[in-house]
Amino acid sequence: SSGINAEYGGSSRIEMAQITQWVQYGGKISERKVPLERYAEELNLFLARRTFIVGCSLSVADVSVATAIAPFLRNLHITPEIQWDLSNLIRWYKNVQQNTSSLDRIDFFVRPVYLL
Kind and range of the H or E element at 65? Predict the structure, then answer.
């Protein structure tokens, strides 16, 4: 089932360790020592075959990274090229927004999104 499961922090020690690493990654995104575009590209590649960052359900990792990358997405001017280039990131972010009320919905997804 979709949504936040009872093991929001992971259902195994391996998942808990991965979540910890991704929360730290979210912190690095928030520091903005590296351009957010670089993180967006990395995340887009990572999410190519994944629905969630860790495991098969929403976790703290998803919320942490989504919150950190939100300023980039909020200010992004959507073009067909961007829609294509960041399609995995955009799909994942929409999914995180739909599955949790802990993130503020941003107007990024209210604007028309080109369908390719």
Answer: helix 60-74
| pLDDT tens digits, one per residue of 86-113 | 999 999 999 998 887 644 444 334 333 4
DSSP string, 47-63: GGG-SSSSTTSB-HHHH
What's the residue count for the chain? 116
3-state secondary structure of 4: strand
Which of 94, 80, 82, 93 minimizes the C-alpha distance to 37?
Answer: 82
Beta carbons within 10 angstroms of residue 61's beta carbon: 25
Q: Which residue type does 108 have?
A: F
Given a cut of 70, is residue 7 above it in pLDDT? no
pLDDT of 34 reads 86
pLDDT at residue 105, as a whole number:
45
53 close to 67: Cβ distance less than 8 angstroms: no
72 has pLDDT over 80: yes
Q: How far apart are CA 58 and CA 20, in angstroms?
A: 14
Other Cβ atoms less than 10 A from the Cβ of 4: the count is: 16
